[in-house]
Design brief:
Layout (H helix, E strand, L loop, with lengths): L3 H7 L2 E7 L5 H10 L4 E7 L5 H8 L5 E6 L5 H14 L4 E6 L3 E2 L3 H11 L6 E10 L4 E3 L9 E4 L8 E3 H7 L11 H11 L3 E11 L6 E5 L2 E5 L4 H18 L4 H21 L3 H17 L7
Parallel strand pairs: 1-2, 1-4, 2-3, 6-10
Antiparallel strand pairs: 4-9, 5-10, 6-7, 6-9, 8-10, 11-12
Amino acid sequence: MHSVKKREEFQDICAVVVTYNPEASLIANIRELRKQISSILIVDNASNNPALAYIADLEAIEGVKVIYNRRNIGLAAALNIGYRYACARKYTWLLTFDQDSTITPGYIAAMLDAYGSYDKRDRLAILSPIYYFPATQAVCYHNRDRSSPIAVIERTMTSGMMIKIEALDKIGGFDEDFFIDCIDHELCLRCLDFGYKLIEVRGAKLAHSLGNSEQRKLLNWTFTITNHTPSRRYYNARNRLLTYKKYLMSHPVLIAKDLSNFVFQILKIIFYEKDALTKLSYTAKGCYHGIIGRTGEYK
């Protein structure tokens, strides 16, 4: 059992889940989340039927509110709706989730325990879980040192991230120019530039999906391909280039590491993914638009 103080802390967190044509699994994911969070906001980016029926069913759950956008305004803009909603209601934390992510037991308690034990809480902006990918059975750690239950990190993913509203106020929310993809990495770099800390909480695990992931093997080396759509390849490439331009001088090592990952991603598309030529075409266009500074929704 958690103490009264811990239960009160649970009330100080607002979860925002952005949806776009979710599958029926969304219902189970929200029910699991509701077991640990008392306030959940679903921001829907103009889903179609039957997805709208799933979302409508969730409105009957106490503590769940839905905001319906008339068009797909992008992930970042939808997250900012959640951010403003939490601000208006004086929440301390914003917890962000993708529609296909599943919370695990003890997740929020582990997050709050980690925050309580961290000695630089005044500079702490983001708490991240570790990520488990059911499709490939892989587990992602953003810091490879597993000797401690808490590890300082420099980047994480949007889904499962718990961020202080106060920090979001100072850094300016999510970058809506990105629309989708790399929103999380840009946000993390901005937090670092403002002097904030990010930590990974080993006791909090999130079951998460990355595209239509599959594992491949080359000799004794196993790696993952995500099979993202061509349009996602466009956004990923464009927003990476936009991030590189913005943070190369302040974070050259991180940018170099990400660039090497980007090159490896392109090689995996070439040798392992279907429709490679189309995806490479969209990737090239994204790189070009990133260089010339084009932002927003791709049309």
